[in-house]
Specification:
Helix content: 55-70%
Order of helices and strands: HHHH
Strand content: under 5%
Largest sheet: none
Shape: elongated
Length: 88
């Protein structure tokens, strides 16, 4: 009983997270990873000098890659099995 006096008794019982809560946290994590990749792409494609140095086919590859990154959350199985596109 002296131990209880030291640590107290005002604790709420542990409640395991629901699958929905776990999925939401995973989605946040996957989106964060995707956002880092988008920042890298945007630093390149939003620079007019760098962008103008690329030929049209290369610009199309980068535009397609960027859109694929944006579409990651719409993939079937998201957030459990995200497939990140390969950088051109």
């Amino acid at each position: 009983s002296s131990v209880m006096a030291l640590i107290g008794t005002g604790f709420t019982p542990y409640v395991a997270p629901t699958q929905t809560e776990i999925d939401a946290e995973l989605a946040v994590s996957v989106r964060a990873e995707r956002n880092v990749l988008l920042l890298e792409v945007d630093a390149y494609v939003s620079n007019p000098l760098r962008w103008s140095e690329l030929d049209a086919p290369t610009q199309a590859l980068w535009a397609t890659y960027r859109q694929a990154l944006l579409d990651v959350p719409q993939q079937e199985g998201f957030p459990h099995t995200p497939i990140f596109p390969e950088e051109p």
